[in-house]
Specification:
Strand order of the largest sheet: 4-5-3-6-7
Mean pLDDT: 88
Structural class: alpha/beta
Number of helices: 12
Oligomer: single chain
Radius of gyration: 20 Å
Strand content: 5-15%
Helix content: 40-55%
Shape: globular
């Protein structure tokens, strides 16, 4: 088994921690990330205010909630590793948490839209990533401090092409950017997913679920797949040339890596109506039974 580099391990831990912070804060527990920008270095990553600064019992309740979340994460990991599938969400206590992923051009976003039409609450990781680096936010300020003012446009917004040029092919720069953005994305996404009412379905539309190692945060992982030719054709319709499309596909996890994490694999190798019908069957056969 290949061991992850220490920096990657800490970034993975940071995303798990940030997700737990988001969930717990959504329920009023006052956790925080100790230092989001330092998650690629050793050190504490979760914090609570000093006990004297909290109302009586608040710290104890927060710690019990954290223990419950960690126990659920470990139970899902162990059950899935044993081939038993991830345990279902506690009925009526919270929403069913679904991780939806797939490579670029597979039609994952279309599946997210279809799930929303069936009543799911959908949180889009790409939209949150843009929000995290929006003007006036801490994320963009830290990115500019790390990479220089050259990544900013004249109006103070992020020049995405300039930032991409700074990190492309530079693993150390990529790690610095990930340490700034990924925990913030994870925390905000988790917070918003918790806004879906108990008994509902909360879907996290996230392209890099396999790469980030966060599958065990979810009760169910859906992987959307499509043949390479279909993916290239869809990306061409977006104006992406084949060389760029192949480079982006190669930079992501492959189908086998994503499939290893999947509870459900959803092929998207036919027409739009076939996909609509497949999502409807998935909702009726797999999602509804998990809620009742």
């Amino acid at each position: 088994m290949t061991r992850r580099p220490d920096t990657a391990i800490r970034l993975w831990e940071g995303q798990i921690a940030a997700s737990l912070v988001g969930r717990l804060r959504a329920h009023g527990h006052p956790f925080a990330l100790a230092d989001p920008a330092a998650l690629s270095r050793p050190g504490a990553i979760l914090s609570l205010p000093a006990s004297g600064a909290l109302p009586p019992g608040t710290g104890e309740r927060a710690l019990l909630a954290l223990i419950g979340e960690l126990a659920g994460l470990l139970a899902r990991r162990r059950a899935f590793a044993a081939g038993a599938g991830r345990p279902a969400a506690p009925r009526g206590e919270r929403a069913l948490r679904v991780g939806l992923t797939g490579g670029i051009g597979t039609g994952k976003s279309t599946v997210a839209r279809l799930l929303a039409e069936h009543g799911a609450g959908v949180v889009d990781a790409d939209a949150i990533a843009r929000e995290v680096l929006a003007p006036g936010g801490e994320g963009l300020a830290e990115a500019a401090a790390a990479f220089g003012g050259g990544i900013l446009a004249a109006d103070g917004s992020l020049d995405r092409a300039a930032l991409a040029g700074r990190v492309f092919g530079d693993s150390a720069a990529r790690a610095r950017l990930d340490a700034i953005t990924l925990p913030r994305i994870a925390e905000l996404a988790a917070y918003r997913l918790e806004s879906v009412p108990a008994g509902g379905v909360a879907v996290y539309d996230v392209p890099l679920l396999a790469e980030s190692g966060i599958a065990d945060l979810f009760d169910c992982v859906i992987v959307v797949e499509a043949p390479l030719e279909a993916r290239l054709a869809r990306l061409a319709l977006r104006g992406m040339d084949e060389a760029d499309a192949l480079r982006r596909i190669a930079a992501q996890a492959d189908d086998a890596e994503r499939r290893r994490l999947a509870d459900i694999v959803l092929p998207n190798d036919r027409g739009e109506q076939d996909l609509i019908d497949a999502v409807a069957r998935l909702w009726e056969d797999r999602v509804r039974p998990a809620l009742s």
